[in-house]
Amino acid sequence: MASTIKPRDAKELRQAVEWALNEGTTLDVRGSGAKLALGKPMVCDQVLDLSGLSGVIDYAPEELVVTLRAGTPLKDVEALLAQRNQMLAFEPPDLGPLLGRPAGEGTLVGAVMGNLAGPRRLSAGAARDHLLGFNGVNGRGESFKSGGKVMKNVTGYDLSKIIAGSWGTLAVLDEVSVKVLPAPDQTRTLLLLGLADEAAVKAMCVAMGSPHEVSGAAHLPGKTALRIEGVAPSVEARLRGLRELLADSGTRMEELGTLESRTFWREVRDVAPLKAAANDVVWKISCPPTEGPAIVARVRVECRAAEAFYDWSGGMIWLALPASADADHVLVRGAIGASGGHATLIRAPEAVRAAVPVFQPQSPALAALSARVKESFDPKALFNPGRMG
Fold this sequence. Notes:
The protein is an alpha+beta fold.
């Protein structure tokens, strides 16, 4: 078992990376380890544990910015923001229970490094869109920074886009600054009951294209959910407008109040509605919304036991399949075909993750570009080697 290095501050973090570089030692970079089971299995010489770099450095509610250390638990950040009626608008999911870990273990930086976002991704953007700046250490042992702590400072914004979604393979972050937003006074949900997948996606797309400012659109077996948020008079008016807009669907409609809605969308965020058995493999498919039902239908031709639900107005599909030796990756990616989508294997046994592509295989041109980026940040492949394939 690899031994652990646990830096206490930015200086010790840089020294740890410098030592690893000089010794040719590979590093398993992790915060809490809540998402360790996502990605290719890694064999590293040392664990670089960032949990000692924890705490909020600065919170400026009036500026809508929070700055924190890399190991700060996400639940602590959310609790702090809730005291000032603010939120992380991209709704970072808690995938711990899906991956066999307790709820509430993940870090905000872990969500950013995975570029993870929940149902509000449709209206608020992905994690990378809320990352204002960061400090870190690259694989050359150099400390560097990008961006700033105010929303108007966009210096290095493209660098933030590169880091978000890199799964810790490019650099080790010490601190990040993230944009926050006011939390809505009310959250209401319009439920359309009994729609088939195709009709549900059509209704969701109509709702998202309307002027009613829908902030969430998900289709679960038996019900299609549309979220409206804001101040009470606006929410009521937009709900009425949405009902009128979708009256021709011919489906029965119900509504969830604020407390019920918050619980419902938190469950959607954390993938709780997916009826996956403990040993099922779980895929996340991103695709054009109108292609989603056809993709699921093609999978079910070969695997009738497949379970699925749709988020992001049909643009993201959570799919559970019975365990198999190759996670049915040929079936899943074949079902996507030329739709322009891509699939990520979120959960599977370690042996399966070692044998199949976890992340969507890149085109030769994109793979070459990714290799150049990796060479620039981490030429000796110190950080999380092999995690992304």
